[in-house]
Design a protein that fits this description.
CATH topology of the largest domain: TIM Barrel
CATH superfamily of the largest domain: Aldolase class I
Strand order of the largest sheet: 3-4-5-6-7-8-9-10
CATH class of the largest domain: Alpha Beta
Number of helices: 9
Strand content: 15-25%
């Protein structure tokens, strides 16, 4: 047993109210009610509790470069696709190619197409949004709050995500300053020279008390093998993967994406 109203079982922290709900349902037909047996929780029960205590988990696959992979990933039930609009990245894709992928995705509605930028000009954003038919902008560089506010004012109809690279608690405080401006935060692992796609993980324990007033995504070194462990330690509204489901930069491993979805659906609804 843990403290502070949480139960720790199979390395997953569970709120007591969720355990109570499960037990009440599990033994509602027993008489007398005062003699509820002591259950032995298999992992399937723990997954059920985690599912009840978590709303639908948003999954974003980033660094997509081809229409066939975008379609295949969408057909797995993933609704958010990321396109790298930073030319220095090995996953960079031209705006016209993003637009062609958007057209190919037309039969699959309600798919979010997020362009990932690093300290862009408003003119670059406007051109890329138009040509790429983007539904959202992710700022993944060292953008100032003033730039984020300018992007918000220029593109009020688009989803705006601010990515922050985290290496210490102070970085979480800096991330919070964007909460009033953006729709969503994204926490990624810090790297001294690379902006993302490094395969490096964050210190998840550092994020356990992170509770901004806007939804947030967990990124950084996530894979089908470690994602459940990550979600047992932190409570993001979604996750973002790139290198963790790749054969090489820009080429996704669809079998890994499928395995990711399978693993996630044991503990959460995904969207």
């Amino acid at each position: 047993m843990g403290t502070g109203g949480w139960i720790l079982s199979a390395r997953i922290k569970l709120p007591v109210f969720a355990v109570f709900i499960l037990l009440s349902s599990e033994y509602s037909d027993l008489q007398p009610r005062s003699k509820i047996p002591d259950p032995k929780f298999p992992i399937s029960k723990i997954h059920s509790i985690l599912l009840m205590s978590r709303s639908a988990l948003r999954v974003k696959i980033c660094g997509i470069t081809t229409a066939d992979q975008a379609i295949a990933i969408s057909q797995l039930g993933i609704t958010t696709l990321g396109f790298i609009c930073v030319q220095a990245s090995p996953r960079w894709i031209e705006p016209e190619q993003i637009g062609a992928i958007a057209q190919a995705l037309t039969p699959t509605p309600n798919r979010h197409r997020i362009g990932v930028f690093a300290q862009p000009s408003l003119e670059t954003l406007a051109q890329t949004v138009r040509q790429g038919q983007l539904t959202g902008i992710q700022l993944h560089g060292d953008e100032s709050l003033a730039l984020a506010e300018a992007v918000r004012d220029r593109f009020p109809e688009l989803e705006l995500i601010k990515a922050c690279r985290i290496r210490e608690a102070a970085d979480l405080e800096l991330a919070q300053q964007f909460s009033a401006t953006v729709d969503r935060l994204l926490l990624d692992a810090y790297h001294p020279t690379l902006l993302g796609g490094t395969g490096h993980s964050l210190d998840w324990k550092l994020l356990q008390t992170f509770a901004p007033p806007v939804p947030w995504l967990l990124a950084g070194g996530l894979t089908p093998d470690n994602v459940i462990e990550a979600l047992s330690q932190v409570q993001p509204g979604g996750i973002d993967l790139s290198s963790g489901v790749e054969q090489s930069p820009g080429l996704k491993d669809l079998a890994q994406v499928q395995r990711l979805c399978h693993n996630l659906r044991t503990v959460a609804e995904i969207c």
